[in-house]
Design a protein that fits this description.
Layout lengths: L22 H15 L13 E3 L5 E5 L2 H6 L4 E7 L4 H6 L5 E7 L5 E7 L3 H13 L4 H6 L9 H14 L2
Antiparallel strand pairs: 1-2, 2-5, 3-4, 4-5
Protein name: Soluble pyridine nucleotide transhydrogenase
Cofactor: FAD
Subcellular location: Cytoplasm
Length: 167
Amino acid sequence: MTLQTSVPHIYAAGDVIGFPSLASTSMEQGRVAACHALGMEPLAPPEFFPDGIYSVPEISTAGLTEEEVRTRGIPYEVGIARFRETSRGHIMGLNSGMMKMIFSTKTRRLLGVHILGEGATELIHIGQAVLNLKGGIDYFIQNTFNYPTLAEAYKIAGLDAWNRMTR
């Protein structure tokens, strides 16, 4: 992906090329285009970018959706964490918000992470990093997350999926 148009000295990046039309993604596309235009070999862009909707509540996602996983015929399990079940959620008085992670039951790899609620656009990057590093459920169940934080939801959702995968 060089983002070079059919006119060799013109490149297109960001909103003009469509989805996902996010500033962070556009910046990465611009970096790739600039490197190519200058004859430099850019690092390959990551496979997964975060998507965020800055609404109330916030929504953020990275990776495959459950529908995409089903369509591809990938056997999977879902892990869910509700923010109200975390200590930080109690401290913040949250009654809503959740994280959903999708794992391959065959490879144990993380396939997608979807967050709805407080801080979703801040929390998504942990899942995005694990996705791009091709990590899996073991990262979440063996790792320690600061307590009390909403990031603890990653461990809760990971354990939720793991409990069903090991039956």
